[in-house]
Design a protein that fits this description.
alpha/beta, 2 domains, 4-stranded mixed β-sheet, 12 helices, 42% helix
Length: 284
């Protein structure tokens, strides 16, 4: 009888699930703080499917798909300055990428605030740009001074956002890296900072961390006891994005560095129509 009952149930007609439920958007646009800014933000959403937000909460800022965190605090800016921030972001970030690439890969949420603070044990540090999740970036300094940024401030923001954007692209696995890049250098042992040493970093095909200038490859990873390929790629890409051709001249005299540089530059130009060298060469 049990088997017969299961058979009858399996043969019964499907039960209607009811009408489709329309999901609400994560945020309501326009946000209503400034007409000019809102018009541009709605246009960006319709074009790329990304939310550029000036009205949000610290919970929004700290949310990610793993867990809520308290890494950041914020001070919201006045909505009337959002248009200046959008113009600045176009100048230092968006203009370097083809439309189709941005449609596929622009972060889902772009937060714009007067100040975004990293919460540290000893003090809260203001940031110009930070990653706040696997698919979001947050920008500080949206205020009356935004449209009057100095050349040095624009360059710092360009360098920071470009590096963080590429970090997001790698985390989300939406860009590929040629295997040839990893076949050039030996990752089995640490390198040296001494130019006279056969194991000198440049002779091995490694470049320094461009943000701080330190030689990351003179220490092996404590878990693997080797150099990490992921670190090599991170610092190499960041160097191309942050440094001008003139600043690269010395490093490119080393054959292995030159090979890896050419592989990355050619790959991104061919596969994504992104000119990494142009980004690095842009100064203000």
């Amino acid at each position: 009888m049990l088997v017969w009952g299961i058979f009858l149930c399996s043969c019964s007609k499907d039960v209607a699930l009811g009408p489709d439920v329309e999901f609400e958007r994560d945020y309501v646009l326009p946000q209503g703080g400034d007409a000019e800014s809102d018009e541009r933000i709605v246009e960006l959403y319709e074009r790329y499917g990304s939310y550029f937000l000036y009205d949000f909460t610290v919970a929004d800022l700290n949310w990610n798909q793993v867990a809520n965190s308290t890494l950041y605090k914020l001070a919201l800016g006045e909505p009337k300055y959002a248009i200046d921030m959008l113009n600045l972001l176009d100048e230092v970030w968006l203009k370097f990428y083809p439309e189709e690439f941005l449609k596929k890969n622009l972060p889902y949420r772009v937060f714009m605030a007067d100040t975004v603070y990293s919460v540290l044990s000893y003090r809260d540090r203001p940031e110009i740009c930070v990653k706040t999740g696997d698919n979001s970036l947050a920008f500080g300094y949206m205020n009356k001074d935004t449209k009057n940024k100095t050349a040095a401030e624009k360059l710092e923001l360009k360098n920071t956002v470009q590096s963080l954007f590429f970090d997001l692209l790698q985390v989300r696995k939406v860009i590929t890296i040629p295997e040839e890049f990893y076949k050039i250098s030996d990752y089995s042992t640490k390198a040296s900072r001494d130019p006279n040493d056969p194991d000198y970093a440049r002779k091995r095909g490694f470049v320094a961390n461009p943000q701080y200038g330190n030689e990351w490859c003179i220490y092996v990873n404590w878990q693997t006891k080797t150099l990490l390929q992921s670190d090599d790629l991170t610092y190499f890409l960041a160097s191309i994005l942050r440094r001008t051709s003139e600043q690269w001249e010395s490093d490119l005299t080393y054959p292995l560095v030159k090979q890896k540089y050419d592989i990355l530059v050619d790959h991104f130009k061919k596969e994504y129509d992104i000119d990494l060298v142009k980004i690095g060469n842009t100064i203000y």
